[in-house]
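Components:
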Amino acid sequence: MRFDTLIDSVGNTPLVGLPRLSPTPDVRVWAKLEDRNPTGSIKDRAALAMIERAEAEGVLRPGCTILEPTSGNTGISLAMVAKLRGYRMVCVMPENTSEERRQLLRMWGAEIVSSPAAGGSNEAVRVAKQVALEHPDWVMLYQYGNTANADAHYRGTGPEILADLPEVTHFVGGLGTTGTLMGVGRFFREAKPDVRIVAAEPRYGELVYGLRNLDEGFVPELYDPQYIDARFSVGPRDAVRRVRELLESEGIFAGISTGAILHAALAQAAKAVKAGESADIAFVVADGGWKYLSTGAYEGTVDEAEERLEGQLWA
Amino acid sequence: MAIEVRVPTILRTYTDGEKKVSATGDSVSALIEDLEANHAGIKDRLLEDGQPRRFVNIYVNDEDIRFSGGLETPLSDGDIVVILPAVAGGAR
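Structure:
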């Protein structure tokens, strides 16, 4: 495979069968390796798509500053493209995200504005919107509402899965900005409506849900429930268990959100087995485990790992 | 019949600070009525015009009820219901 630049190599990731984790020869789970993207995560797709659309619309010109509420992968992806295309990058993120993330962002030249830990990414979004008002010439691509995010998956992730696995019956992705599920969901509604679209949503410790009132809640502007069929809340314990299982039985070293996604995928597999149905379940490996080593998720007992992750934005 | 209901910090003013309370009901709708009977005022924080409020998520055994039958999602003894506010969450 040959590409003119790194950016041209975004997407077209491998789909890998998991013979040990699949419960039977008729109910199979398949991992889409999104860590095989230039900066190591599925966000490369959304970041590139958002920047390219902004450039096409004339909103982004060389020397512009890009601003984004992001505690990691999107910031890293944007920072990479920004560096190659000549933009300044400012990321707003909660102060309690891992050191690897901050270091990676700084390495790619991004500047970090910290938002308070309590209130997690809600607060980062709020702070970023405020900063955007104060700097009207900065460009906030806004991954939570930018349709280019979902479109990247409608055009890329979804079609790639169908091309590699025409017999696909389920797609399982992580629910964050909702871009992946909205894009892949919309794609399958059109191309193969029988495919069941399943969302795995990380469940955090209490601090992250510490709103002052229920009207302060946040739902990404991209989110449209019509594109998903089921949504599961997965806690850090199950995510850690599954990510260790994935490594141990299939040799895939994945980030913790992938553990949550796998948990939901295996639940769908178990349902299919119980119903006596065959299934081909494609799920997302959103990134590799490298950035999460300092969280303690991969060492010690599951109890210890769960405890360590409770207070963190683990996915 | 006993259903464990986990309540987010913000609603614990209705449960005397308890994070877990017990309730009964054969559907989420019935459960909310039962919660209201013991924790007056909580129903109005959860529902608006008879539907879950926009920023309120309700899970039965970790599954979001909006996809499993809404307020008519059936409940059985031993089920766990979790109520969480909608948040932007973590690392994106």
